[in-house]
Specification:
This protein is an all-beta fold. It has a single domain, classed as 6 Propeller (Neuraminidase), CATH 2.120.10. It contains one helix and 26 strands. It starts with 18 loop residues before the first strand and ends with a strand. InterPro entries: DUF4221.
Length: 386
């Protein structure tokens, strides 16, 4: 069955459950058939459904705790999904050791080592031990001869990792993707910061794919998403590439694998110095890729695809307009071969905000266009694609 998608109605109506596209040769399936259950979590007066920074951490063999950085309240909120509510909250603004600290991101290495970072720098890092409920300010003296990180990401889409007393961070450029000179060949997206020595080192091979260098793309398509797996590999997903890129533990390039969505039509450069509206139109109308995730429980990988759509005539295209788009998850095996593509309807979830636990993959219903969005509770749909 060949797909000819006409964007009058949702892409949802243009495929049959379990069919496949001969150009990609893998099944395309409806996410609804994999829904296991819905978990409802109560929110209190200072909680927020805007959960942009979170981690699911195993407490023991059977129990998991959901840690959320509450940026509105500047606190660490801890939820038990089985109980459906908040069980702990730790303020980052009332600790004598960490006054005037506004947390930008969180790294939950384990229950003993949860780190909080500030935006744009690594000068001050807070360590928190959940077991003994103790905060500690880590005084950093970054070696000033090292390259400076301007915009470390440290979010669920490109998480910061803590290995062997070092932080591994993704750096997103502040440069526009539409400059006439095109994307540079010397960009470095990955850095290692040694907590003991203060050394900050970049990995030269982590720049843009060759297929993008020297060309112009909407800035949102020049970001990168990466994840580490249990074998020590780093897997990269670039929004404007149908392939994923695999590096070893030292960020030396190993191999790329085709991980193309059935809805992708490839990528053409945008005109240099395009207006903001042209950039956003390109981003919404053209299928592109989001985060990549390693599921350690099932030893598979998930790659998010934002499926392009034709906006309504009266719609004003803005940064969050992508949340109206349908999206899919490309599921890959441990050899990076595509197993299947699972399609989700838009306006329910934010496709970038999900997490994986022992039972499956959780999607909070926090899309800004979700009709039942509430300040009192959050519904999380649990899927298992096995």
């Amino acid at each position: 069955m060949k797909f000819i998608v006409v964007r009058v109605l949702s892409v949802w109506f243009f495929f049959l459950l379990g069919c496949s596209n001969p150009e990609t040769n893998f099944p395309i399936e409806n996410a609804k058939s994999y829904l296991i259950k819905t978990v409802n979590v109560k929110l209190d007066s200072v909680s927020t459904y805007e959960m942009f920074d979170f981690e699911l951490v195993r407490e023991n063999e059977n129990d998991e705790l959901f840690f959320v950085l509450n940026k509105v309240n500047n606190s660490l909120d801890v939820y038990d999904l089985d109980l459906g509510g908040l069980i702990d909250r730790f303020s980052l603004k009332n600790q004598s050791e960490i006054k005037n600290f506004r947390a930008y991101s969180m790294v939950a290495h384990n229950l003993d080592s949860i780190f909080f970072l500030q935006q744009y720098n690594l000068d001050r890092i807070i360590s928190f031990n959940y077991n003994n409920k103790k905060f500690e300010l880590i005084s950093n003296r970054i070696n000033k001869s090292a390259p400076e990180i301007i915009n470390h990401v440290s979010n669920p889409s490109s998480p910061t990792y803590f290995f062997k007393n070092s932080f591994f961070v993704t750096n997103w450029t502040f440069e526009s993707g539409i400059k006439p000179s095109g994307l540079p060949s010397n960009f470095i997206s990955q850095y290692k910061y040694n907590l003991e020595t203060g050394e900050l080192n970049g990995f030269a091979e982590t720049g843009y794919p060759y297929s993008m260098v020297g060309l112009t793309f909407p800035t949102l398509l020049t970001l990168n998403y990466r994840v580490a797996d249990s074998e020590g590999n780093w897997i990269f997903s670039w929004p404007a590439s149908d392939s994923i890129f695999v590096y070893n533990s030292e960020f030396k390039f190993k191999e790329k694998f085709l991980a193309k969505s059935s809805f992708s039509n490839g990528f053409k450069p945008i005109i240099p110095n395009a207006s903001y509206q042209i950039e956003m139109d390109y981003f919404i109308k053209n299928t592109n890729y989001g985060r990549v995730y390693y599921d350690k429980f099932r030893n598979v990988y998930y790659r998010i695809t934002l499926i392009g759509r034709k906006p309504d005539d009266k719609e004003r295209i803005e940064m969050n307009s992508f949340q109206k788009n349908d999206f899919s998850i490309i599921m890959l095996g441990d050899d990076f071969s595509v197993i299947k593509e699972i399609v989700f309807e838009g306006k329910v979830y934010n496709p970038f905000l999900f997490f994986v636990g022992r039972e499956g993959i959780y999607f909070p219903k926090t899309n800004i266009d979700y009709q039942n969005l509430s300040d009192d509770n959050i519904s999380l749909d649990l899927y298992n694609f096995s």
